[in-house]
Amino acid sequence: MEKICVVGLGYIGLPTAVMFANHGYEVHGVDVNQKAVDMLSDGQIHIEEPFLQDYLNKALEKGTFSVSTKPAEADMFIIAVPSPIAEDKTANMDYIRAATESIVPFLKKGDLVVLESTVPPRTVLDVMMPILVKSNLEIGTELFVSHSPERVIPGKVFEELVKNDRIIGGINEESSKRTQVYYESFVKGEFILTDATTAEMVKVMENTYRDVNIAFANEIAKISDNVGVDAWEAIRLANHHPRVNIHLPGPGVGGHCIAVDPWFLVEKEKDLSQIIHLSRNTNDGMPQYTADKIDDILKDVKDAKVAVFGLAFKGNIDDIRESPSMEVLERLKAKNLRISSFDPHVKENKAAFQTQSYDEAVEGADLIVILTDHKAFKDYDPKTLGGTMRHKAIFDTKNAISREAYEEAGFTVYRLGDGKGNPKN
């Protein structure tokens, strides 16, 4: 049985590892987080993802999955570590470098190294290759290297690992072909082979397109608030055009991809990425815009309390990386508002003023603010929810609830970009 070593057991690395472990390979997972390693060794997942526990259980039962903080000899090495941005909005390649360095002592003739992390174009050539040559293996003939970026969405990772098309960019054709052989064990989508730098560019482009589109939607929401148009309805109608696909507005953009990857292009070519740069600034400015709206709604309420619902960066997951909710909390704190925060998916208190009980969060509150469109929020009974509030008001930044149901329950309802019910109108 061929062996695969997966470095990085986060939201992408772990599902990928257990998927391979359930499709004919012996997999060794590696992570520097000792707590995560200990939990996985005991058969417990440390991140939330549908079906992940089942896949882990099956792999452990088969004996095809092991985990530690150190790499092991393998035939294929997958690097799936973070590639965040620094405070100055430049790419932090420390994790990529460290992960690549860690596998060098274990490389042997005929091995394959695959980078799955989303990275700036030329990372394979300029960052990884100078490290991999330390293996004393000839790159392209004795050691094969490629970039095959993940293209999945949290909450549907296993479905999309199988169904989505797979981009594979090798440093040469043989590297691409060898990579495809491994992923063919479970991928049903089309395989598209290219070179490494093009593959890197494609993944960054995909997320940048979405960021620019969301920035446009956020501008439409702001304009709609001022001119008295419901942006959500206008976007829905505009999207009936066969060549229009406008995304949805919100309190900001989060996660490890859309909020990060566009900066890779700005860093590479600042003068040529002005639309991208403006879009990033627009979306980064939405938490402040949201906080200002909240402050405006509560301007006549003395000693106001805000109950923030939703800490994850998107609905029905527990991932708070780059979440705009965290920025909104900080902005509200700066306005000296009393705050509570709640998220049904974030089981440990990781945010300011967080509680594990929505009853506790809303008690004595003057306003509920929905920042994440969790399904659970749609299912709450507004009559029960408002029972212990001081003032029954809700500000929905994600169009997540029924306005009519909440108004019938006695709530004053505000919605981002709906053009009505806002203080300026």
TrEMBL record:
GO biological process: polysaccharide biosynthetic process
Domain UDP-glucose/GDP-mannose dehydrogenase C-terminal: from-to ranges: 307-403
Keyword vocabulary terms for this entry: NAD, Oxidoreductase
Keyword NAD annotated: yes
GO molecular function: NAD binding; oxidoreductase activity, acting on the CH-CH group of donors, NAD or NADP as acceptor; oxidoreductase activity, acting on the CH-OH group of donors, NAD or NADP as acceptor
A Pfam family matched in the record: UDPG_MGDP_dh_C
RNA-binding keyword on record: no
SMART domains assigned to the protein according to its UniProt record, in alphabetical order: UDPG_MGDP_dh_C (SM00984)
NCBIfam families in the cross-refs: NDP-sugDHase
Family listed: Belongs to the UDP-glucose/GDP-mannose dehydrogenase family.
This protein's name: UDP-N-acetyl-D-mannosamine dehydrogenase
Organism: Planococcus plakortidis
